[in-house]
Design brief:
six-stranded antiparallel beta barrel, mainly beta, single chain, 8% helix, Elongation Factor Tu (Ef-tu), domain 3, 12 strands, 2 domains, 215 residues
């Protein structure tokens, strides 16, 4: 079964030791099981893809359109998150089936890309948000030490340019970490351990994209 990725969940971080006794920081990811909610074909939808659902919930907590969507696929439960993944041969998938980590060829040393939502840190200034430098701590500077200074607008164009780096909402953005190394795979528990950190909080949803193993 060839699938470019699966939906998962970040369970937290820990460390393991290699054969030489070196400590390796790893993130534990639950990958699946994901249910096939819809199969899309080029003849009907214009492209080949499968819609997967992850983290089941009661149908009574779903909206009426989504209840019909899940029941049409032969599923007796709803899901908190749905995502589409492109496939080459949609005939390999059937609505209502579940895909687990055992169905994916993933080995130690493989590379994966992980997409998640970074932690939201609320309203922050330019120093924390954009790594701005501080203003002078003396020589007449008063109560402006952590302010951004001039925003650059003068008589023309007479306004702040759109996209200017300013204080504002920091975090809570979609972030992708590429080429993370798979340190260990536990198929019976749908768990993988990847080297380093991934975006998001504990129990936050992530998308794991599989890549070919590199030498």
């Amino acid at each position: 079964m060839k699938l470019e990725g699966l939906i998962g969940k970040k369970l937290g971080m820990t460390k393991i030791f290699d054969e030489e006794g070196n400590a390796i920081p790893v993130t534990v990811l639950q990958v699946g099981p994901c249910a096939v909610v819809q199969v899309k074909t080029f003849q009907k939808d214009g492209y080949n893809a499968v819609q997967l659902g992850f983290d089941s919930k009661k149908l009574t907590k779903c909206s009426f359109p989504m209840i019909g969507h899940f029941l049409k696929a032969g599923l007796e439960t709803g899901f908190y998150i749905l995502r589409e993944f492109k496939v080459e041969d949609p005939s390999e998938f059937k609505e209502g089936q579940y895909i687990t980590l055992s169905d994916i060829v993933l080995e130690k040393g493989s590379k994966v890309d992980v997409t998640g939502t970074s932690k939201g840190r609320g309203f922050t200034g330019g120093i924390k948000r954009w790594n701005f430098s501080r203003q002078p701590m003396s020589h007449g500077a008063k109560q402006v030490h952590r302010k951004k200074g001039s925003s650059g607008a003068t008589t023309f164009p007479g306004r702040v340019i759109k996209g200017k780096k300013m204080p504002g909402h920091y975090g809570n953005e979609t972030v992708t970490i590429k080429n993370l190394t798979v340190i260990d795979v536990i198929p019976d528990k749908n768990l993988i351990l990847v080297k380093g950190g991934v975006p998001g909080w504990v129990n936050g949803y992530v998308i794991i994209y599989f890549k070919e193993k590199r030498s």
